[in-house]
Structures are given as structure tokens and as C-alpha cells.
Amino acid sequence: MNISVNSFNKGALASSPLLTGVIPFGIICGVTCTETGLNQWEALGMSSIIFAGASQIVVTQLMNEQTPILIIVFTAFLINLRMLMYSASLAPHLNHETRRKRAFLSYFLTDQAYATSLRRFLDENQSPVDKPSFYLGAGLLMWTVFNVTTFLGASLGSLIPDEWELDFAIPLTFIALLVPLIKSRIELVTSVLAGGIAIAAYAVPLNLGLLLAAAAGISVGSLFELKNEQ
Amino acid sequence: MNNNLQFWIVILALGLLTFSIRASFLVMMKNQQLHPRVSIGLKFIPTSVLAALALPAVFLTRTNGIQFTEPERWLAGSVALLVAWCSKNILATILSGMLTLWIAKHIFG
Prior knowledge:
The structure holds two protein chains of two kinds. Chain A is mainly α. Chain A has helices at about 5-15, 20-35, 40-50, 55-65, 70-80, 85-95, 100-105, 110-120, 130-155, 170-180, 185-200, 210-230. Chain B has three domains: about 1-35; about 35-70, no CATH class; about 70-110. A two-stranded antiparallel sheet of chain B has the order 1-2. Chains A and B meet through helix 2, helix 3, helix 4, helix 5 and helix 6 of A and helix 1, helix 2, helix 3, helix 4 and helix 5 of B.
């Protein structure tokens, strides 16, 4: 595989400001893993295999609530579906590569690598870069830092006594991820709706109330948007 | 079922699924585009799922049957929500919530 070192470094450098968010998030991911009894090596295994922090915290929370495997996997899968958009939007920029190389590159797809790369690829005022190398520079930096910080977080988390109630960091993380995503009134309405239904339907067995609530938010939002388009 | 086995099944299944999301267009459908209808649906998934996870987790627990959490957690969750709204910062949100919980527990507990 031909990597342009120059473009790789540019990608890493361009994505580096985002580390201010990735470092604390990785630590939180690691700490919350210990709330379900995982050690730092298991946390590292989780981070390197899934490599998508929000969905990993979802797994932790739902494992704590004794949710069936299928519902855990499906809910976490929903959280990661947003990367379908990233994959579609990056594909035209990387479609000259071999299939194997594209498969390798897609493993590093994250919010951060996507945002950094696309911004640069669409910027006509900057000198052209080798796109796969630039993207890999951003992706590999995020991958390394995320895995190291989850490992550190899990090592740290196992030392913290239960009285600190660190399990509460999990819903707080959901709040921290949710609020910046609410950019319009309809997103606010559907979030409140989904949250309200999730509380009302908490007693539904198998934690299915969660999926019911999410489905309500998604359908009301989509119907509203579709109607608005016409 | 063994808890550890269950954990690894979830991790491997989710790892595979997540990789197939990432690889979808990049590997399989490199010359195709996402249907606009699909993007509309995708747009509301993260907020709806996160809200459906966050709200019950602040107010309710399943530890010994379904119960309300302690009011200190309601307060801490509300403070975190406010901080999230104003700062949009992950770290500030989590720290403010945890600090509120600890302080409230110290005062009322």
C-alpha cells in the first residue's frame, strides 16, 4: 500500500484539535466499562473491535440492565448507523483504491476522521492531498488515542470505590452526546417524545420500551421532514 | 448464560455489524448514493435513541424491581442538562453532573 507520509501527517495534524473531545470521551468509555465488571484488557478488546465509543457505552448500560443480547446489539447498531452517511459521502473520494484497501480504510471511519477528511477534500483553496493517506492519518490518530485512553480509563475506573457512584457517568454521557445534536425544534420535540415514552414504557419487558420510544421519535421526525419537503 | 460469554458475543456481533456499516458504501457500493429518504430517517436516530436511553437512566432503576432513583440523581441530571445546553462540552457536562451528585449526597445524605 502506497502511503504519502506528507498527506498522512497532514491528516493527523488536521484532526488533532478534535482530541480535546476524544481523550475525555475515551477515558469515560473505559471507566464505564469497569461499572459492568470488565477489566482494562476487556475494555481494550471492546474498543479495538467495535471502535465506536457511544455504542460501547450503550452496551455497558444495557448489560447492567440485564437486557437480552439481541436488543443490546440492535440498539447499539442503531447508534452506529449514522456512519452509513459518512461511508456514502467518502466513497467517491476513495473509489480509486483497491477493494482490499477500501475495506482496511473503512475500519477507521469515525465522526472525527470523516469530518476532518471531508472538510479538506472539499476545500478548493488548499493544495491537493493524497486522500487515502490524509484520511488514514486522521483515522489512525483517533484509533490510537481512543484505545489508549479507554485502557487508561478502565485501569483508573477499577481503582475508584463504588461510593463515588460512577455508574451515573453513563446517563450523563448520553446527555452530553445528545444535547449538542439537538439543532432544530423538531429534533427537540422528538427527543422529548422519545425520552418521555422511554420512561412511561420502562416496565415493558426485555427493555423493549427503549426501542418503542426510539421508533416513535424516529417516525415522528421523519414524517415531519417528509411533509415539510412537499 | 455465562456473563462473560454473553459479553464477547455482543462485542463480536456489534463489531461485525459496525464494520459492515462503515464498509457499506466504501467497499460494496462505491458508486452509489444514499437515498434522500434514508438520510431523513437516519437524521433522527441518534437523538431519539440517546434520549430514550438517557431519561429513564436518570430517573429509574431496575436494581430491585423498577424504582425511582434517588432525588440527588434527578438534580444532578438536570444540572448536567443545563450545562450541556450552554457549553455543548462533553467533559463539562459529565463533571458538572458528577460534582452535583457528590455535593447533594454530602448535604442531604
